[in-house]
């Protein structure tokens, strides 16, 4: 027996000499352990594995060798990277294609490769640790068996829809058969990540393996080794027919399959799902519809038609502006999740927050669960109690969703100190103030804080409009003063706008960005000025919205016009959420700072609303009436009197639905471009990310800058000129926008 | 739970009787190796001694003790004056609501003076270790001279609670004033209310059972199934040998009414490797390595020791068995290092005492799982682990197997959670005398919560605890 093994060893040595390509492989390698080939993936140039051209080529080579090797009975597919199996296909491959036909061919090549995997005569066990997404999941579900670690990093999913695409390598065909039609639609249409235990319940994976703690090697390294050992055992078990490949279906599953066998039922499902998609996407996103279409083709007309539909739909989607916009956002997000200011001199270990209001408590919530000791200070006991309750409630929601245990919740909360005085502030590395938006109050707390904090401590202001240099004017060390503009609700809104003054030191900025990244935020760093970037863009649009209301367009109609343009929240609702008082405040301040360009609607409209107590959702009345426990909201009829008082006559030439939409959007976009022109913005990418993640600019348009690129600066300027003729300088395009209009080769992106 | 008290009464009594009977001179210790230190005795520090240690036979849960629950008081009064004991401390894991201070109930029942204070401690598997070290502390601080410490566990009878909903209803019922209020409360009872709350099987902080944790630990250290089975077999074989040779002299016979006298541990079952290999994984299915045979089993039993200041012991004419010299408790991350206490504690206690591994003649480690013991040995023998996780420059080294658990361990003798600590210490003392060593080391790991049928108590929030005590044999020349 030993001789046989030795002979095999010699053979394989000869084999490797005959194929010099073996040693040249950098992404995929394999090792034969007994009768099992262990195929290991590891992209040397990246933190994650992607199905790039090279990865695919090497994988094909390896698979051919494995299939040809008579000593191998089965295979294990595993990644050597901790935290990532395969994160998806390489987006660059799609972007490199010049037309839909090329992308379709790309999809078909993928389909073919996975078909070979699916029909492999030797069982292949996918051993999954870390993210298994998109093309990675499609690869895994083509394998005969799947084992996943229960690590928190192990997630499975088909996020293609979020990039305006569909699973184009057999995913739309295999998933419905594997997890059932409803779950498959849920996965593909939402793109959400599925954790390992849920994946097991759904039938997406066969077995789970526990991640290991410290041993004679590091936990991550040993966990991968252990996963491999277990997978090898299972691979042998499958060959020996000790491990069944099909799972006995439960009663519910059988029942569901039975019901789904009726075409009538299936058609009803397509109809319902399409209806839901149309309602949520307003028809602005083509990908979900194409996913439904591909699934339907496969189930109703057979696999050939299904795979063909999938590849063709994939080709078409890849070249839509929506997909381009969404991919741009994805890539922008990746950029805004990096700290371009380097590592700060000292990490923030204790963070103090002034003001336990919605904002302050929100910041506390996203900080304390990252292991940063958090001090929450307020001036009153009820205010502090409310804030602490908000943090508790936020964490408790997580226990209900089972993302953390009650023990973890309590242990996290032990890191939060609520207090009314400045005790312990000397230990703080950073103080974020979230007190009332009044320069005098800001100055008062700044002085109080500077009297107690240590010299290295950073003072950050969470203001939405007050210029940071005005706040820093009261500081004895303005290099440590910075703006950190969070968005409400803090635990849900991904954006953080960091504002630096000319005096802010680079290390202060680096520390602020590091804290924001730890809090899980997408970060844009902008220059100082009234309204910074986000609030400043919102200003003209809100001004226009007030004018539109004065012209007799009701809040409901205004919301409908903006949401059908792609804004996730209608402008009237947004104003209520932000607070009419805040909007009035900002409108007045920015109006003073920027002059007539910020005009449009009459500020008095907002002021009158505030006087009458219509401050938005928080006061129960704003543009709408809000009632506790009621999900539907009615228009605030008392608004009619105000609008009557400030009534304006609409100009028929610029008041069609479409014109109203472009009046709102063009002012937003023009202000954004002006911010870039003035250097408030560092790059168009940050401008797009800030507008989409902070203000809800339509994601399908990819942000104001991508919108200008795809819509055409010239066309936009043309529209603005028409509005300018009626309303004046509110619509005067800025110089940079004019430059782009005059030279079509100028693009903000590439 | 009455049974717990009564068995403890028995133990206390026997302890006293044994102390009185103890007259034979013990084996003179002959030092085989040169030690780093001749003695750990320090000027100005009170010497604390183990005078005697006893235990009931450890029995598989659900066997004999079940029928002995109503055991009547059986006290032979002893020659030890009732008031000679200053303080009594008992360790237990499962708290019975009715006898929350079980030490006091047992002390009164055993005929100790009602003037002798007593309290109960809990610290999972090492509850009786905690009882002993608490006693050591009381003597060292000059509070007391004579302490009875022990531990007891009856897994055959664990409290099972009503569901939370039902408890709430029942408590509200107490407060209800009118018949109408009562009826409406009773009317609110649904089927779901009636389901009892079964004892949790998981660690409170991590929701993981200990068997599961042990399996992951074994995997993390690459301990194979074969290694675990071999170690389990070793434990049973050595325990059988020790039992047959009459070495387990700390065991006292125990009369179960209506049954025979129980005088032997009944969990010792030397098997064969073939038979062990047949068992399926018990926790991580199907690919795990921890089986029923290489884990410690549910056990009923109790143990007790008499600890005194050396001065007092000698004055009363006793011949102490060992000095209790030093101890540490350590804690680790409850998720991934739950059962690694001995690896962390051993180097620490050696350092405190100024000894090295080579100075130790007798090792008694608590064997929760064969995989866990092997993992600890591998951790202690790894420079990488010592440097990466323990902040040490080099490994402490694994204890040599020829000094390690030579009379069996928890895997074979059994593991009544609250009572194992006293057994380990008594065994070290006995082995030192028998084998002629000077220093012995006891190590045990405990969980924040306990495995299997134990309802987690809030006291166990500190997750992983470990205790090690270095005992030095009393030289007969003294």
From TrEMBL, chain A:
<dbReference type="InterPro" id="IPR012803">
    <property type="entry name" value="Fa_ox_alpha_mit"/>
</dbReference>
<dbReference type="InterPro" id="IPR006108">
    <property type="entry name" value="3HC_DH_C"/>
</dbReference>
<dbReference type="InterPro" id="IPR036291">
    <property type="entry name" value="NAD(P)-bd_dom_sf"/>
</dbReference>
<dbReference type="Pfam" id="PF00725">
    <property type="entry name" value="3HCDH"/>
</dbReference>
<dbReference type="InterPro" id="IPR006180">
    <property type="entry name" value="3-OHacyl-CoA_DH_CS"/>
</dbReference>
<keyword id="KW-0456">Lyase</keyword>
<dbReference type="GO" id="GO:0005743">
    <property type="term" value="C:mitochondrial inner membrane"/>
</dbReference>
<feature type="active site" description="For hydroxyacyl-coenzyme A dehydrogenase activity">
    <location>
        <position position="497"/>
    </location>
</feature>
<feature type="domain" description="3-hydroxyacyl-CoA dehydrogenase C-terminal">
    <location>
        <begin position="531"/>
        <end position="626"/>
    </location>
</feature>
<feature type="site" description="Important for hydroxyacyl-coenzyme A dehydrogenase activity">
    <location>
        <position position="485"/>
    </location>
</feature>
<protein>
    <recommendedName>
        <fullName>enoyl-CoA hydratase</fullName>
        <ecNumber>4.2.1.17</ecNumber>
    </recommendedName>
</protein>
<dbReference type="InterPro" id="IPR050136">
    <property type="entry name" value="FA_oxidation_alpha_subunit"/>
</dbReference>
<dbReference type="GO" id="GO:0004300">
    <property type="term" value="F:enoyl-CoA hydratase activity"/>
</dbReference>
<comment type="similarity">
    <text>Belongs to the enoyl-CoA hydratase/isomerase family.</text>
</comment>
<dbReference type="Pfam" id="PF02737">
    <property type="entry name" value="3HCDH_N"/>
</dbReference>
<feature type="site" description="Important for long-chain enoyl-CoA hydratase activity">
    <location>
        <position position="160"/>
    </location>
</feature>
<dbReference type="GO" id="GO:0006635">
    <property type="term" value="P:fatty acid beta-oxidation"/>
</dbReference>
<keyword id="KW-0520">NAD</keyword>
<dbReference type="GO" id="GO:0016740">
    <property type="term" value="F:transferase activity"/>
</dbReference>
<dbReference type="GO" id="GO:0070403">
    <property type="term" value="F:NAD+ binding"/>
</dbReference>
<dbReference type="InterPro" id="IPR029045">
    <property type="entry name" value="ClpP/crotonase-like_dom_sf"/>
</dbReference>
<dbReference type="InterPro" id="IPR008927">
    <property type="entry name" value="6-PGluconate_DH-like_C_sf"/>
</dbReference>
From TrEMBL, chain B:
<dbReference type="GO" id="GO:0005783">
    <property type="term" value="C:endoplasmic reticulum"/>
</dbReference>
<comment type="pathway">
    <text>Lipid metabolism; fatty acid beta-oxidation.</text>
</comment>
<dbReference type="GO" id="GO:0005741">
    <property type="term" value="C:mitochondrial outer membrane"/>
</dbReference>
<dbReference type="InterPro" id="IPR020617">
    <property type="entry name" value="Thiolase_C"/>
</dbReference>
<keyword id="KW-0809">Transit peptide</keyword>
<dbReference type="InterPro" id="IPR020615">
    <property type="entry name" value="Thiolase_acyl_enz_int_AS"/>
</dbReference>
<keyword id="KW-0808">Transferase</keyword>
<dbReference type="GO" id="GO:0006635">
    <property type="term" value="P:fatty acid beta-oxidation"/>
</dbReference>
<dbReference type="Pfam" id="PF00108">
    <property type="entry name" value="Thiolase_N"/>
</dbReference>
<keyword id="KW-0443">Lipid metabolism</keyword>
<keyword id="KW-0496">Mitochondrion</keyword>
<dbReference type="Pfam" id="PF02803">
    <property type="entry name" value="Thiolase_C"/>
</dbReference>
<dbReference type="GO" id="GO:0050633">
    <property type="term" value="F:acetyl-CoA C-myristoyltransferase activity"/>
</dbReference>
<keyword id="KW-0276">Fatty acid metabolism</keyword>
<keyword id="KW-0012">Acyltransferase</keyword>
<dbReference type="InterPro" id="IPR020613">
    <property type="entry name" value="Thiolase_CS"/>
</dbReference>
<dbReference type="InterPro" id="IPR020616">
    <property type="entry name" value="Thiolase_N"/>
</dbReference>
<feature type="domain" description="Thiolase C-terminal">
    <location>
        <begin position="318"/>
        <end position="451"/>
    </location>
</feature>
<comment type="subunit">
    <text>Heterotetramer of 2 alpha/HADHA and 2 beta/HADHB subunits; forms the mitochondrial trifunctional enzyme. Also purified as higher order heterooligomers including a 4 alpha/HADHA and 4 beta/HADHB heterooligomer which physiological significance remains unclear. The mitochondrial trifunctional enzyme interacts with MTLN. Interacts with RSAD2/viperin.</text>
</comment>
<feature type="domain" description="Thiolase N-terminal">
    <location>
        <begin position="48"/>
        <end position="311"/>
    </location>
</feature>
<dbReference type="InterPro" id="IPR016039">
    <property type="entry name" value="Thiolase-like"/>
</dbReference>
<dbReference type="GO" id="GO:0016507">
    <property type="term" value="C:mitochondrial fatty acid beta-oxidation multienzyme complex"/>
</dbReference>
């Amino acid at each position: 027996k030993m001789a046989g093994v030795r002979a095999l060893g010699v053979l394989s040595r000869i084999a490797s000499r005959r194929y010099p390509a073996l040693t040249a492989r950098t992404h995929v390698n394999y090792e034969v352990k007994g009768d099992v080939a262990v195929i290991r993936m590891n992209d040397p140039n990246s933190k994650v594995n992607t199905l790039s051209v090279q990865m695919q080529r090497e994988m094909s080579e390896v698979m051919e060798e494995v299939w040809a090797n008579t000593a191998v009975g089965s295979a294990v597919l595993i990644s050597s990277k901790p935290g990532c199996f395969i994160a998806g296909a390489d987006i660059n491959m799609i972007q490199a294609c010049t037309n839909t036909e090329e992308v379709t061919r790309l999809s078909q090549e993928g389909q073919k490769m996975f078909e070979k995997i699916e029909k492999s005569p030797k069982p292949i066990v996918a051993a999954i640790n870390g993210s298994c997404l998109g093309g990675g999941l499609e690869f895994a579900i083509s394998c005969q068996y799947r084992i996943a670690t229960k690590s928190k990093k192990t997630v499975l999913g088909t996020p293609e829809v979020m990039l305006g695409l569909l699973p184009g390598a057999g995913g739309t065909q295999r998933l419905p058969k594997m997890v059932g039609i409803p779950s498959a639609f849920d996965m593909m249409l939402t793109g959400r990540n599925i954790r390992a235990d849920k994946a097991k319940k759904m039938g997406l994976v066969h077995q789970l393996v526990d991640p290991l703690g410290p041993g004679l090697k590091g936990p991550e390294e040993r966990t991968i080794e252990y996963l491999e050992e277990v997978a090898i055992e299972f691979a042998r078990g499958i060959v020996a027919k000790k491990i069944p490949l099909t799972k006995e279906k439960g009663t519910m599953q059988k029942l569901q399959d039975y019901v789904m066998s009726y075409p009538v039922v299936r058609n009803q499902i397509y109809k319902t799902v399409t209806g839901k998609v149309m309602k949520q996407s307003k028809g602005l996103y083509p990908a979900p519809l194409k996913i439904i279409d591909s699934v339907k083709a496969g189930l109703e007309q057979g696999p050939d038609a299904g795979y063909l539909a999938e590849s063709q739909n994939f080709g078409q989607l890849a070249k839509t502006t929506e997909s381009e916009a969404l991919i741009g956002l994805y890539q922008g997000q990746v950029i805004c999740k990096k700290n371009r200011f380097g590592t700060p001199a000292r990490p923030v270990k204790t963070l103090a927050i002034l003001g336990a209001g919605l904002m302050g408590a929100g910041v506390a919530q996203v900080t304390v669960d990252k292991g940063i000791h958090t001090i929450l200070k307020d001036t009153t006991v009820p205010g502090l109690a409310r804030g602490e309750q908000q943090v508790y409630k936020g964490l408790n929601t997580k226990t209900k969703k089972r993302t953390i245990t009650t023990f973890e919740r309590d242990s996290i909360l032990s890191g939060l100190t609520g207090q009314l005085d400045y005790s312990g502030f000397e230990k703080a590395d950073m103080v974020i103030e979230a007190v009332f938006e009044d320069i005098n109050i800001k100055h008062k707390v700044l002085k109080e804080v500077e009297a107690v904090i240590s010299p290295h401590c950073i003072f950050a202001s969470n203001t939405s409009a007050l210029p940071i240099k005005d706040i820093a004017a009261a500081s004895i060390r303005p290099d440590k003063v910075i703006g950190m503009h969070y968005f409400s609700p803090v635990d849900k809104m991904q954006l953080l706008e960091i504002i630096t003054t000319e005096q802010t030191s680079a290390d202060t900025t680096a520390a602020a960005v590091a804290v924001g990244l730890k809090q899980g935020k997408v970060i844009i760093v902008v220059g100082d000025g009234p309204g910074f970037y986000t609030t400043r863009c919102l200003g003209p649009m809100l001004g226009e919205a007030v004018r539109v209301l004065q012209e007799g367009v009701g809040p409901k109609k205004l919301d409908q016009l903006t949401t059908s343009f792609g804004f996730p929240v209608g402008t009237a609702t947004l104003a209520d959420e932000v607070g009419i008082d805040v909007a009035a405040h900002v409108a007045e301040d920015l109006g003073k700072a920027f002059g007539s360009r910020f005009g449009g609607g009459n500020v008095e409209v907002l002021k009158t609303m505030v006087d009458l107590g219509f401050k938005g959702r928080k006061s129960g009345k704003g543009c709408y009436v809000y009632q506790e426990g009621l999900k539907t909201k009615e228009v605030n009829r008392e608004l009619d009197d105000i609008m009557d008082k400030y009534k304006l006559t609409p100009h028929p030439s610029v008041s069609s639905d479409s014109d109203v939409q472009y009046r709102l959007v063009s002012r937003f976009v023009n202000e954004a471009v002006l911010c870039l022109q003035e250097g408030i913005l560092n790059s168009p990418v940050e401008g797009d990310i800030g507008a989409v993640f902070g203000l809800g600019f339509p994601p399908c348009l990819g942000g104001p800058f991508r919108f200008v690129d795809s819509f055409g600066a010239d066309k936009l300027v043309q529209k603005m000129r028409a509005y300018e003729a009626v309303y004046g300088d509110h619509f005067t395009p800025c110089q940079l926008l004019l430059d782009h209009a005059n030279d079509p080769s100028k693009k903000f992106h590439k | 739970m009455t049974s717990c008290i009564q068995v403890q009464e028995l133990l206390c009594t026997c302890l006293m009787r044994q102390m009185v009977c103890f007259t034979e001179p013990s084996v003179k210790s002959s030092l085989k190796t040169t030690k780093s230190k001749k003695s750990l005795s320090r000027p100005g520090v009170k010497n604390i001694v183990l005078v005697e240690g006893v235990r009931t036979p450890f029995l598989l849960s659900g066997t004999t003790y079940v029928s002995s629950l109503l055991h009547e008081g059986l006290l032979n009064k002893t020659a030890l004056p009732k008031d000679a004991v200053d303080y009594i401390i008992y360790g237990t894991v499962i708290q019975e609501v009715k006898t929350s201070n079980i030490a006091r109930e047992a002390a009164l029942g055993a005929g100790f003076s009602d003037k002798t204070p007593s309290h109960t401690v809990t610290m999972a598997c090492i509850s009786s270790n905690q009882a002993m070290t608490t006693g050591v502390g009381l003597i060292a601080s000059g509070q007391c001279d004579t302490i009875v410490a022990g531990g007891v566990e009856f897994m055959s009878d664990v409290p099972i609670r009503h569901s939370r909903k039902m408890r709430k209803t029942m408590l509200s019922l107490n407060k209800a004033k009118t018949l109408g209020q009562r009826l409406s409360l009773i009317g609110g009872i649904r089927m779901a209310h009636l389901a009892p709350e079964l004892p949790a099987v998981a660690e409170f902080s991590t929701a993981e059972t200990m068997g599961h944790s042990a399996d992951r630990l074994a995997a993390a250290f690459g301990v194979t199934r074969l290694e675990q089975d071999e170690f389990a077999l070793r434990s049973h074989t050595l325990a059988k040998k020790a039992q047959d040779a009459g070495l387990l002299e700390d065991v006292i016979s125990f009369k179960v009414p209506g049954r025979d006298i129980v005088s032997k541990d009944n969990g010792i079952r030397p098997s064969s490797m073939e038979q062990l290999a047949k068992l399926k994984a018990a926790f991580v299915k199907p690919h795990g390595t921890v089986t029923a045979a290489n884990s410690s089993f549910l056990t009923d039993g109790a143990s007790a020791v008499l600890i005194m200041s050396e001065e007092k012991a000698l004055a009363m004419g006793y011949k102490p068995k060992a000095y209790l010299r030093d101890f540490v408790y350590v804690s680790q991350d409850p998720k991934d290092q739950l059962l690694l206490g001995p690896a962390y504690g051993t180097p620490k206690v050696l350092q405190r005492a100024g000894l090295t591994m080579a100075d130790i003649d007798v090792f008694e480690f608590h064997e929760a799982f064969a995989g866990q013991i092997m993992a600890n040995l591998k951790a202690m023998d790894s420079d990488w682990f010592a440097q990466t996780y323990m902040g040490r420059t080099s490994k402490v080294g694994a204890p040599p197997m020829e000094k390690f658990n030579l009379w069996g361990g928890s895997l074979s003798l059994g593991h009544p959670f609250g009572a194992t600590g006293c057994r380990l210490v008594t065994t070290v003392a006995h082995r030192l005398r028998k084998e002629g060593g000077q220093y012995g080391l006891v190590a045990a790991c405990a969980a924040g919560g306990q495995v299997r049928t134990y309802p987690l108590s809030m006291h166990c929030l500190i997750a992983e605890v470990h205790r090690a005590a270095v005992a030095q044999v009393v030289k007969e020349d003294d």
